[in-house]
Amino acid sequence: MNEAxxxxxxxxxxxxxxxxxxxxxxxxxxxxxxDWAAAVYTRSPLFAILLSVFGxxxxxxGERQFAAVGTEILPASPANKVLVTSGxxxxxRNPMYFGLITVTAGIALYFGTAPxxxxxxxxxxxxxxxxxxxxxxxxxxxxxxxYTEYRARVRRWL
Length: 158
Description:
Layout lengths: L15 H18 L11 H25 L25 H17 L2 H40 L5
Helix pairs in contact: 1-3, 1-4, 2-3, 3-4
């Protein structure tokens, strides 16, 4: 359990919210540069906004849980002092990622164009196949049986 954590690749040292903003900025640039027809006309922009607000609240709730116990939030941090299993972590092992994806899904529904619909898909692929495997391996090394039990009890997503 005290094995050294491998150095994180460059893309994991960029925090997920930065990746999220970069993908949204790229989508906005593509939408502004080309005449994208709306793929979905949102009948209720309020639903899209509420979905994004829910995602933001979930992300902040997860961050607050980390802050409350004094553990590191950055995925590429060499260690996490505490295995957080309270708050939203009772329902999903990745509430902050789920929240960011939900925010971008709400934004996609609001704008309704292909570039914005690509964002939650790309963000999911990024976190599910790059960030989460690195973090799960780190948590397994650092917390051993506690993490194994938590992983068996709580799903990765929902």
